[in-house]
Amino acid sequence: MAKTNSLTNRQIFFLMTQTQIGFGILSLPNTLQATSKGDGWISVLMAGVMIQLVLIMLWLLLKRFPRLTYPEITQFVLGKQVGKFVNLIIYIYFIWAATFVLLQFTSIIEEHLLISTPYWVIGLLIILTCTYAAISDIRIIARFFGVISIVFLFLFGISFFSFLLPMELHHILPFGSSGLKNITLGSRDSMLTLLGFEVILFLYPLAEKKGTDFLKVISWANVFVTGLTAYFVLLCILIFSEAFLEEIKYPVIYFLRPLHFQMIDRIDLLFISIWIVPLAASIIIFIYLASKSLRLFTDNQMKRVLMNSLAVFLLFIAAPKDPESKQLYTTWIEYMSYLVLVAIPLLLLLCSRFLHKQIKEDSH
Q1: What are the chain's domains?
Q2: Which residues contact 253 (CB under 8 A, 6 or more apart)?
Q3: Are 19 and 281 in contact (CB under 8 A)?
Q4: By C-alpha distance, which of 165, 231, 174 is closest to 39?
Q5: Which of 185, 198, 244 has its CA nearest to residue 55?
Q6: Of the four, 74, 120, 234, 335, which is 20 to 30 A from 38 by CA?
Q7: What angle do CA 134, 140, 145 make, to 5 degrees?
Q8: How does pLDDT run across 242-273, given as a tens digit for each residue?
Q9: What is the pLDDT of residues 97-143, one digit of tens each?
Q10: In 240-266, which ranges are continuous DSSP H helix?
Q11: What does the pLDDT read at residue 363?
Q12: How would you write 127-181 as a 3-class SS string?
């Protein structure tokens, strides 16, 4: 593949990090209070290690089929008919993941920024914007993600203002006081926050550098996202009491609310406004990946993206918005992610080894 049509390591890094960093990090400190409490940051690090093991497994699979994407591998290994059925499951996962992020995205904006705006209007504006970006080629999306990665610098800069607030070190001491069982349970909740690494299943054929170079870049991306998530979780634990974290739905937003400056009165609203960018990036890539997972009715990429966006918006409108239903959506996404990102790739890897199915890397 010509280098002009390839993705550089930097572009792969930005694609993976922008997809992984989403809404989950905003509510994770609250979620972890039910399990690992003050050891929540340890749970995040443990989740990062687990995801690294999954990344190695996915890399081993992709390395056997360097010119094929995930949906193409399923049909190559399992056969055309079984492969199409598996691809349907993968397609449903990405459509539902995009809907799930859109639901959470709209909820955050409605609660904190556009209180009087109907939720469907917010959702429509978001999906239209994301559709416009998702129609583009993956290389254009990668360049766009590279440009907007500058928001991380703003997020880090804004978060440093939190050090002006009183922090209680005893909230995290002694380390491991929650017990190994609770820390492990917390790592399961953290893994849901770190989803998005599945984008690599579609990037390997386009990677300019494959093999161990590809593994290194996705590993560094995982380290970055895990570190960023653990950093915000640790900040919230140090600033807020345990009882407060159990009550506040989005602690990462609220830890900046007490700060007031002469020119900026609500720095937390500035933080939310910036965080909109990575949230939108997740929807963009999920809609794009859905269009690559299953070719329904048409081979035209633009038409598939438009159909997928319409499906996401209709599901968004039809989905109940009560807390119980949202928790049910979380459970669905969790179990579907285990199936699509762990069980199916592991099955493909074992079958390809057992059946001796492999495509050798092109020589350069």
Answers
A1: 3-354 (1.20.1740.10)
A2: 26, 108, 112, 268, 271, 272
A3: yes
A4: 174
A5: 198
A6: 335
A7: 80
A8: 888 888 888 877 776 666 555 566 666 777 77
A9: 999 999 988 988 888 788 888 989 999 999 999 999 999 889 899 88
A10: 242-247, 251-254
A11: 42
A12: HHHHHHHHCCCHHHHHHHHHHHCCHHHHHHHHHHHHHHCCCCHHHCCCCCCCCHH
Residue type present at position 30: N
Which residue matches tokens 């081979």?
299
**Residue of 288, 289, 257 whose CA lies nearest to 270:** 257
Q: Which amino acid is at 356?
A: H
User: Token pair of 263, please?
Assistant: 């020119």
Question: What's the CA dihedral at 171, 176, 177, 181 to 10 degrees?
Answer: 130
Residue 117 gets which letter from DSSP? S
Q: What is the pLDDT of residue 220?
A: 95
Structural tokens at position 290: 């859905």
Q: Which amino acid is at 39?
A: D
Range among 56-60, 185-189, 190-194 rated most confident: 56-60
Residue 125, burial from CB neighbour count under 10 angstroms (0-12, 13-18, 19+): middle
Counted residue by residue, the chain has a size of: 364
CA distance 292 to 189: 28
For 361, the token pair is 């890397």
List all residues 6 or more positions away from 118 whose beta carbon is below 8 Å from its beta carbon.
none
Check: CB of residue 149 under 8 Å from CB of residue 228. no
List Cβ neighbours of 37 (8 Å cut-off, separation of 6 or more). 178, 182, 242
